[in-house]
Amino acid sequence: MSIPALAIKDLSKEYDGTLAVNDISFTIEPGEIFGLLGPNGAGKSTAINMIGGVSRIGSGSIEIFGFDNQKDSRTTRRMVGVMHQEIVIDNFFTIDQALRFHAGYYGVRDDAAWRQRLIDRLGLQPHLHKVMIKLSGGMKRRFMIAKALIHKPQLLILDEPTAGVDVELRHTLWDFVHEINQQGTTILLTTHYLEEAEQMCDRIAIMNHGKLIALESTATLLKELGTRSILVHLQTPINELPEDLCCQSAELDDAGTTLQLTLSASQPTGDLLRRLCDAGLPIADIETRKAGLEEIFLQMTKAGKAEP
Amino acid sequence: MNQRQEPEFISWLPFYTLLQKEIRRFLRVASQTLVTPVITASLYLFIFGATLGDRISVLEGFSYAQFVIPGLILMGVINNSFANVASSLFMSRYLGNIVDLLVTPVTPSQFIMAYTLAAMLRGLTVGLVVWLISCLFATLPWAHPFAALGMACLASFLFAQFGIIAAIHADNFDALSMYTNFIILPLIYLGGVFYPISILPPLWAKLSHLNPLFYLIDGFRYALLGVGDLPFIVSFAVVSAMALILFLWAATLIARSHRLRT
Hints:
heterodimer, A: alpha/beta, Rossmann fold, Alpha-Beta Plaits, 2 domains, 6-stranded mixed beta sheet, 10 helices, B: mainly alpha, 0% strand, elongated
């Protein structure tokens, strides 16, 4: 069994009497892309700050490739690259200078080929000699990814890397993250774009109120918790919904010609179709749509809102 | 497994890089960090060397310009050593880019050494230029050159530590400027830069002995002129003790990441 890239055990952190992170445990295997999702204030960034070493651990432990990030902090910090959620730059320097400095902070000699590859891949070349203060928000984000990768970390932490960036840049960044991952870098990411988390992540953990409320492979999460919406278009209008459709919810539009039905992941569509035919509905067309991570996320975190 | 070859770790490189970055930071704004303090000191030199100086005599055998130059050199060293660390570290905290260092393997001792050496370099550079300009107004005997160099280094080291402490404790720009305006400036002006403590009334002379800057300025003046209010060994011992205390204070703050890590 391989040593986990990241092993978090019973991790907690309190700020002013409030548990920002409340006893969470999970592991990330080497080579995974792991998504940590949750609404604002769920405790994701606090957890990431403890992993990266920006915040002290309240209680519990964090191991990175088998090394304790408190006792062996010098080793673990070399293994981790962090792209913070907030734009963190030093306005005194250019992209080129800052990237060279960052390699040095990690005790790594400047690898010109690797640095140039990051510059090319992230489209930083035209802005290489501009001071940070003159860069656009998107360019600063690109630089921050390059900065997090300059020392060739084994575990890359991306805390909402695409927040506030345009669609083109978002796709560029995700393509690059995939590329880096395929070369062996383990990725831990948080994002508010759940569609992307669905496409990118092998496994997903959902946090709410500091707690871990779900931890599954993306496929399992979608299979077990996902719902399907079925739109049934009728040839002639009906006045009321047939009884005994056995679905999670059923709505009839004002014109009486379209039924919107929601099925749980485990309920077979054929069963519903049979019931619709038995009810004698004049079906003209049927559209089906699988509910994605976004619906699952809202469903789980809304349920959690009732908690204190 | 990571397909990229893991790079070799060079343990001294984080220190060297941080030192290099700190030096390039103050060189990048040299008009503020080097030229301005030199101009300020030059104005003092002009006033006391070429105008008022001829009418004032406070130390037998020396012109007033010769008396005041050691204090002005040290003032440049102190102010700039303090300002270099205080502004750089405070701005890193204030703008949040301190996290760029917190996530790296830079050790607390490397952190202190890099910030301190960069501050010393700026302070001593300003002091050197002030001395060179002062040669236009008066020549100093350099009675004990190594002692002078030692005191200048101690002064810059001491105020670099004070800069670290101030940058960590200050919550805003006002608080940071209070360290300069309400602590350093009064201590310098009342520490004997412009007058010998021996000419003060007995009570004020005794109170001046409580001013740590008095020992620094008097020791440095002794090293340059060969004359001081106190034996050099006393000044040197007091300043060394102060430097050690402030270093331990700053080192404790950095080692505990006080107000740096949440």
